[in-house]
Amino acid sequence: MIDNISLYGKQFDTDSVVIFNDDEFSKFSKYSDYLSLLTNHKFRYTIIEQPIYLKHSDLEADIRDLKMWYEKNKCGMTVRISDSIVNGNLKKIVNCR
Known about the structure:
Number of domains: 1
Largest sheet: 2 strands, antiparallel
Radius of gyration: 14 Å
Number of strands: 2
Number of helices: 4
Distance between the termini: 28 Å
Strand content: under 5%
């Protein structure tokens, strides 16, 4: 997931607005929601109709933060553990509404 977000970010070489096409938006939305629930990372994008980064450097900062989280947690992380964390955090959000 982080790799897909990172690969997308490598398309840009200036600090300008980052807008996703429909296919990229769908993937990015799923990945960023999952990673946010897993890592408690607060993404820097702005939501209008879909998330956009007002500055490419914000996307790069999100990628850097997620990679640091991954390096700290990769040894003990499995899909089962990550899904359990995400589902638990999602239940907390749903129960608060």
